[in-house]
Amino acid sequence: MRIFSSLGRLFKIVLVVFRYQLDELVLSGIRSPLATRLLRLVRFGRQPKLSRGVRLRKALEELGPVFVKFGQVLSTRPDIVPHDIAHELALLQDRVPPFPSEQAAAFIEASFGQPPEVLFAHFEREPVASASVAQVHFAVLHDGREVAVKILRPRMLDVIENDLRLMEIMARLVERIPDGKRLRPREVVDEFDKYLHDELDLQKEAANCSQLRRNFEPGSARGELLMVPEVVWEFTSRNVFTMQRMRGIQVSQIDRLRAAGVDIPRLAQTGVEIFFTQVFSDGFFHADMHPGNIYVSDEPATLGRYIALDFGIVGSLSEFDKNYLAQNFLAFFQRDYRRVAQLHIESGWVPADTREEELEGAVRAVCEPYFDRPLSEISLGQVLLRLFQTSRRFNVEIQPQLVLLQKTLLNVEGMGRELDPDLDLWRTAKPFLEKWMHQRMGLAGLRSKLKQEASQWAQFLPELPRLAHERLKRPDYGPELMDELRRLRQAQEQGNRWTATLAGVLALGLAVLLWALMR
């Protein structure tokens, strides 16, 4: 039955591919005479009426939730997917009809041993939101707290595994086409596999939510910037995620925000500040900051604060990544393109034999045009995107976490400038980066590092006198080791002479033998 199901699904995929002329899309991206001949054959004189990005988006929407998710993941990989396609795939809507509330109740009972009517004082049977992976119901706990219950879609794992198997087959077929490996199809499918299985674990999403809430602790200065729902762990499992219910206005509904009394320009600037705080202070950021996941509180006590929802996709940066990014941005602010090139080489992301001045020239060609524009029109996300695209010809290894960061930065910029078209991202970002670099590199940074290492030093500092005394008591084997190394070198040289002599004798014998045979 599984084989027949896969064959039926494959047949539908083939029909959709031909309906939207995606065969032409694949072949046109492969530089090969064979691909060119095949392209002429499959077109049958047809010319596409829609752009390639629109055709791909519509095809993925028709193929269903798993392929919609796949398109959304591809939209975050501009290092692999052309910009026009990535932009169109970012418009994919992750909305599907809700599954029956009886199945939702059964999932809750299977996870916690009791039906929702017992677990909650009130449980709304009708979902308030439905996506390809899960849907959300509102409920009230017995202690009066209002919560949102996110429930995984039934049999989702079976559907995903079936479609992933077909994607792997298609990836192998694409790799066999001339120049197909350049598209890295199996790498893309593997990344999607990991991403989708992570999203199916709602307990992992809950942990991401809990971490972000801890970083923006309510009552702290940071808590004034961003509100994150509290996780209700006793009603959270791999299949169910229960969190505090949040009330607010979607950030894209500007007229409603203005009517509620929210300071819109201040809101735009705060969004940028939240993003850079997550990236450079925490190295942990919400990586799906599109308007559907970001709300603004309209409650009198918290009016104008951002509210974050949906924590399935987060990004993490190491100290090395943060330092690399900060120095790149600052060098760009100062138009120091040589430093940008040096940072790429020092990081090891370009081959060591890359010519620094050649890379500097390529970076200058990307960045210099931006300085002719007003600062409010300059996009940091676009700068990163162009740098990634330019770097491909230098065989730069694009780091996945930086691509995810670039995609999130584009979302933040777009959202901020929709709120305030005159938003000067640079004016907000530059002081933040300079302050961060000062904290990392100056006396404050030294003090912070010493404080971090103090617990380790407290363990081994008392042992230092004893270890030094033991080391001084040991006999000095240095002269003996030098004598042994000298003898080994002499033996090796003698062996090399014997080998050379033997090779010469063999060569002479072979020459005599050949001379005798030719007489």
CA(first)-CA(last) distance = 78 Å
Radius of gyration over alpha carbons? 31 Å
Helix tally equals: 22
Mean pLDDT: 79
Q: Biggest sheet, in brief?
A: 5 strands, antiparallel
Q: Quaternary state, please?
A: single chain
Count of β-strands = 11
How much of the sequence lies in strands comes to 5-15%
> Helical proportion?
55-70%
**Structural class, from helix and strand content?**
alpha+beta
Number of structural units classed as domains? 4
Low-confidence stretches: none
User: How would you describe the shape?
Assistant: globular
Pathway: Cofactor biosynthesis; ubiquinone biosynthesis [regulation]
Keywords: ATP-binding, Cell inner membrane, Cell membrane, Kinase, Membrane, Nucleotide-binding, Transferase, Transmembrane, Transmembrane helix, Ubiquinone, Ubiquinone biosynthesis
InterPro entries: ABC1_dom (IPR004147), Kinase-like_dom_sf (IPR011009), UbiB (IPR010232), UbiB_bact (IPR045308), UbiB_kinase (IPR050154)
Protein name: Ubiquinone biosynthesis regulatory protein kinase UbiB
Topology:
Layout: H1 2-19, H2 22-28, H3 33-43, H4 52-63, H5 65-74, H6 83-89, H7 101-112, H8 116-119, E1 122-123, E2 129-130, E3 134-140, E4 146-152, H9 156-176, H10 185-199, H11 202-215, E5 226-227, E6 240-244, E7 249-250, H12 254-259, H13 264-282, E8 284-286, E9 294-296, E10 306-308, E11 314-316, H14 319-333, H15 337-346, H16 356-367, H17 380-391, H18 400-419, H19 425-441, H20 443-460, H21 464-473, H22 478-518
Parallel strand pairs: 5-10
Antiparallel strand pairs: 1-3, 2-3, 3-4, 4-6, 7-9, 8-11, 9-10
Helix pairs in contact: 2-3, 4-5, 4-6, 5-10, 9-10, 13-18, 13-19, 14-15, 14-19, 15-16, 16-17, 17-18, 19-20
